Prior knowledge:
2 domains; 99 residues; rod-shaped
Amino acid sequence: MADVTYKPSIAFWIILLITVFTWVFWLVPIAFYLLQKESVKTAITASFQRIKNEFDQSTGTGGGYSNSFEEIERLGALKEKGFLTSEEFDLKKKQLLGI
């Protein structure tokens, strides 16, 4: 009988290391997805809500800033006519602007 010994080459060890750990690298994005799924959903929902609110405010359908500014102009006219004091006007203006 012949005595045969096999010594793997460097390429074999490199290929073995790459293929052994390949399945582990697939687990990283899956684990990240499963762990972060709810926070990403919440962030996306909040972003869409902000976009909807900005759109509603710009079109005047959401009761946003455009209506607030119209109300401030109306209150300014009442102040000029003497129906409101400066303190009342400033208080209402801060309430409308959310300050």
